[in-house]
Amino acid sequence: MSAPSLELPAIAPAARTAARHRRVPPSLIAGAIILGLIVAAAIAAPLITSYNPDQQDLSHVLAGPSAQHWLGTDQLGRDVWSRLVYGARTDLQVAFIAVLSPFALGSLLGVLAGYFGGWLDGVIMRLADVVVAFPFYVLVILLVFVLGPGTRSIYIAITVVSWVSYARIVRGETQVAREQEYVLSARIAGLGRTRIILRHILPNVITQAIVFAMSDIVLDILAIVTLGYLGLGIPPPTPDWGSMMASGQEFLTTHWELATIPGIAVVITGLGLSLLGDGLADVLRVE
Amino acid sequence: MLLRYIARRLVLVVPVALGVTLLAFFSIHLVPGDPARTFLGDRATPQTVAALHRAWGLDHPIPVQYWLFMDRLFHGNLGQSLYYQSSVAGLIISRLPVTLLLLAYAAAGAVLISVPLALAAARRPDGIADQAVRAVGIVGIGMPSFWVGTILIIVLALHAGLFPVAGYGSSLPGHLWSLVLPGLTVAISIAPMLVRSLRTAMIDALNSDYVAFARAKGAGGTAVLLRYGLRNASISAVSILGINIGFLVGGTLVIENVFALPGLGSLMVQSVLDRDFPVVQGITLIFAVIVVLVYLLTDVAYALLDPRVRLG
């Protein structure tokens, strides 16, 4: 495996920066390939599987890997490969959607807090303190519980919990940007606050939030499969890696692969996203 | 000086604690429809629903409800479980020791795993060891904790037979032994995050003036690494662990369910499935209290160890 965020040999910083402009970080390429393959498989799910993921076959339960069933069947005779591929569809889709609203909400609150400061900053940051006083999973489980089962609740729960990191990152960046000359000159030129914030500050401070979003998606995928594992996630029979692993738990002594294979899919997806994030950070960090 | 710092830090706890209770209180009003009816189910009689309304004070205006909630809270009353014939506080107290013990195991395990790895990585930044540790970390950060637990069960419990597969044992030695594998699981799943922060802290320490001075006086590489790197790393490890207490608690919550341990995390998940709102709400509050207390203790410990904090 290629090591992530490979640094170039120790050369003068200026030369290194120049070299970085030319070179695409290897981790970016590796991550894009891994993630690309998984997303392609998820999109092409009907083409690369020969069974409906929900189709039960009670005469062929817990069958081992074979030519018909590459990864065998589960306790209801459903094809594990099909469920794995359709599970990628479910989990990736939910994770990608789930990362968007905390990203938007957190960045917006962060830029407002950082630009205006004062009481608005105080309120937003105290709110952030309250949210991080709850362990991530505790608050997510509480919210999913009160809002009722389903993906909508998962989106809301993740938004309520994850906006904080984005807000803190963007707030810090905005506090620096606010004092920069381009903002001062925009202000002197008489531009309105909304225009300054949206057109001048936001594009400059959003990169760090984008970089963070890449690692945040990994956390979201973990949260979604963990909720599924605990029986609190995407309701059955929709294929989801977490609930697949939970139902495989009963057969650890005889069919350990049922509870472990979906986990490998999670790890590979996480690896692709992390490499992509690392590479993106390298590219965007160029001053 | 230290006392003044602690006093100032305590004042900061007040708004957070208030916010935490507000959020826990308001969560019931996020329930679509009538919460009492939702939690009791369709078969509940109007009388039981009305009784629950009275018990939860749902007939009052919201500010009064919050006042009643806080009044009960200050008397240590977290309400009555809908599922068990018991008070929520009683249930929590009976389950708390398992969770606290598991947290201690996990914290100790996380330090034992992370400190040597971070030391090896920081010794020569971008060297082979550093690259290897970083690669392992990048794979590790995407591992679901329950999956790590499942693998450990398969390998160390089912095949090697070293540990019990699940459960809490019967006697005290049994309890202590049964928590080793769950503790290890939580430790492994938060180690990547810990190693990353620790490595940075250690590289900073090794680049500092006092290390350069020690080197100039002729101290060897290993001596510097252990005396300055390790010592500073241990302090940072405790504070980094403190900052990440939320992840540690979340990890134990999930892992208790994997190993069927009778702690707060398994009770919380079971209570969600039983639609036992008061228990879920109570456990949420207790977990938040644990986190806020640990944040506080971390800051105070840091101020004790580093005079610059309390003087600043």
How would you explain this protein's 3D organization?
The complex is a heterodimer of chains A (287) and B (312). Chain A has one domain (26-284): MetI-like (MetI-like fold, Orthogonal Bundle). Helices cover 72% and strands 0% of the residues of chain A. Chain A is built from eleven helices and no strands. Chain A has helices spanning 13-22, 26-43, 45-48, 80-116, 118-132, 136-147, 151-178, 181-188, 193-230, 241-248, 256-284. In chain A, helix 5 (118-132) packs across helix 7, helix 6 packs across helix 7 and helix 9 packs parallel to helix 10. The radius of gyration of chain A is 23 Å and the shape is elongated. Chain A starts with 12 loop residues before the first helix and ends with a helix. With 312 residues, chain B is an all-alpha fold. In chain B, 78% of the residues lie in helices and 0% in strands. Chain B has helices spanning 2-26, 35-40, 46-56, 62-74, 88-123, 128-140, 145-159, 172-178, 180-206, 209-216, 221-243, 245-258, 264-273, 277-305, 307-311. In chain B, helix 7 crosses helix 12 (245-258). The termini of chain B are close together. The model of chain B has no long low-confidence stretch (mean pLDDT 89). Chains A and B meet through helix 5, helix 6, helix 9 and helix 11 of A and helix 1, helix 6, helix 7, helix 12 and helix 13 of B.
